Structure formats: structure tokens, C-alpha cells
Amino acid sequence: MTRQMQQQGTGSQQGWSWLWLTLGSLYFVIPLLATVDFSLRAKKDTLGFTAYANIFNDPKFFESFTFSALTGVAAIALSMVLIVPTAYWVQLRLPRLRPVIELITLLPFVVPAVVLVFGLIRTYSTTLLNNRSGGWILLTAAYVILSFPYMYRAVDTGMRAINVQTLTEAAQSLGANWGTIIWRVIFPNLRVALLNGAFITFAIVMGEFTIAALLAQPAFGPYMNLLASSKVYEPSALAVVSFALTWGAIGIVQILGRGKK
Questions:
Q1: pTM reported for the whole predicted model
Q2: CATH number at residue 199
Q3: Which residues pair with 43 in a beta bridge?
């Protein structure tokens, strides 16, 4: 009798789990399907890819996408160079400073993007902002700051999953210096964590609008906003394309994160 009650309880829990999973899936899938359907109605009473063709035929689409993609890659590389050695040293030698570092990396949540970009403009208006490359440098630096909460926590979680002390001692016993330890020992063991942080950073860069617009940079976020203010069906098509790119990036992260047996 008790066993039957346990089986009924387990079956009831599984039923509720599937119910909430189905409702949650419908909550996300139905708006996506509605967006796809609307993007295909650029021509009256006809389903077609006219809106998508208009997007891909627009040279500004590729220019803005390439600009943001390159900026995202640069921001990811710089954030890794800053975060990995910092998290490694805190984990190895200065564990008492972890709360301080965590507080510092949380500052982008406290300081609004508008305040950050106006501070950058006021500070560097007479130096870096005198040329276009200087604006790109400021934009990349701002994105590195925005990536701190996500990249640091991904790296810190990866650091806790491996025995940093043992790996360091083993590498030092073989004659490795600090640079070799970080580059050839720590980085390979943080591959999955770095991929997760890199994906979140890339998604932030591709969708960010405020900083890029106020710095007058031809990024993907301002392009999407401009398209939404001047077109009808193309913004929906662009949203679908962005969604597909996001899921494609997730798939790449999953494939690269599996590694070799």
C-alpha cells in the first residue's frame, strides 16, 4: 500500500513537472511563432521572405553586425586577460579578497550604462574621442566593464571546480613559470567556464544600444533601433535572425564544451 502511494505521488509530481514545462515552453514559443509569422507577411496575402531579403541586401546590416562582432571578440579577449589572472591569484593566494573582488565586479549592475558612458565622454572627450579609433577603444572598454559580473562568476566557478593549488604545485615542480602556468595549465582547465562567460559577453555586445549610440558607433544595437523606427516587417525578421544567431552561438558553446574523451 505504501509503495503504491509512493508510485502515485511520483507520478503526480512528474505530471505537474510536465505541465509546468509545457506551459513555460508555450510562453516562449508562441510569441516567437507570432514574430516569425508577422515577418513573413511583408507582401499582402502572401507568405514570403521579402523582409529577410531586404535585411540581407542592406549593406548596413553586415557593417553593423561585423563591427559589433569584432568589438565583442576584443571585449571577450580583454576581459579574459583581466579576469583569469585576477581570479587565479585570489583563489591561490588571497582568498580573503574574494568578497571585495565580487563587489567590484558587481558595480556594472549598480552604475547605469548612461552614467558610465557620460563619464567616459566627459573624461576622454579631448583625447580618445578626437578620432574614430578612440571611440571604438572606449566602446570596447565599456563592454569589458559590462562583462565583469558574468565573466568573473563563470571563471570563479570554474576555478572552484578544479584544484588550483595542486595544479600550480605540479606545474612549478616541472619548472613552469607563472605565465606558463596560467596559459598552459589554468586556461585549458577553464575552457567551458570561459566559453559560458564569452557567450554572455557576446550577447550583451550584440544587443547593447545606449553606450554605442551615445558614442556614435555603428554598432548592431543602434542599427536595430533605427530599423525598428523606420520599417514595419524588417524589425521582426531581424529579431528572428538575432534569435537564430543566439541559439547558434549556444550550440557552438555546447559542441566546444564537450571536448575530447
A1: 0.83
A2: 1.10.3720.10
A3: 46
